[in-house]
Amino acid sequence: MARVFVSSVINASADRVWDRVRDFNALPKWHPRIRDSRIEDALPGDKVGCIRNFHLQSGDNLREQLLGLSDYDMFCTYSMLEGPMPLEDYVATLRLTPITDGERTFAEWSAEFSCDPKDESDLVNGIGTNVFQGGFDALKRHFGG
């Protein structure tokens, strides 16, 4: 089982960051690699079980299902149903934790998945750098950090 873990500090309160990322359909509003997104079957973007169908800027299409979401604990967990990467059983969690010293946010994004061992290093590095850190960098820019 391959694992990816990326963390960062964002110079805004966790409540403000959560407001920006909690909608499962909002990726195009805050992540620069996402071109468009829609929730299938016209479900709300915070309904556990909903499926987001989205395109990367490259044109690749992905489908992911929301498995869990908590406003109290500020996390969302989702699985990838379809995508261009050679992996299976992908489950990821984006979690925010308040840093009370200075109204900042500790953000962590992690994933586990199965893949061919020859692809593992490239997938871990690509997801960690392009998806997770790329998203955190965009949030830091948005919140002025």
What does this molecule look like?
This protein is α+β, with helices and mostly antiparallel strands and 145 residues long. It has a single domain (2-142), classed as START domain (Alpha-D-Glucose-1,6-Bisphosphate, Chain A, domain 4, 2-Layer Sandwich). 26% of the residues lie in helices and 44% in strands.
> How do the helices and strands follow one another from N- to C-terminus?
EHHEEEEEEH
Find the CATH topology: Alpha-D-Glucose-1,6-Bisphosphate, Chain A, domain 4
How big is the Rg?
15 Å
Class, according to the CATH hierarchy? Alpha Beta
Q: Give the neighbour order of strands across the main sheet.
A: 1-7-6-5-4-3-2
Into which percentage range does the β-strand content fall?
35-45%
Give the oligomer, counting copies of the same chain as homo and different chains as hetero: single chain
Q: Helicity, in percent?
A: 25-40%
Structural class: alpha+beta
Largest sheet: 7 strands, antiparallel
- Overall outline: globular
Mean pLDDT: 96
Give the distance, in angstroms, between the N- and C-terminal Cα atoms: 34 Å
Mind telling me which CATH architecture this is? 2-Layer Sandwich
Tell me the number of structural domains: 1
**Number of distinct helices:** 3
Low-confidence stretches: none
| CATH superfamily (homologous) name | START domain
Counting DSSP E segments of at least 2 residues, the number of strands comes to 7
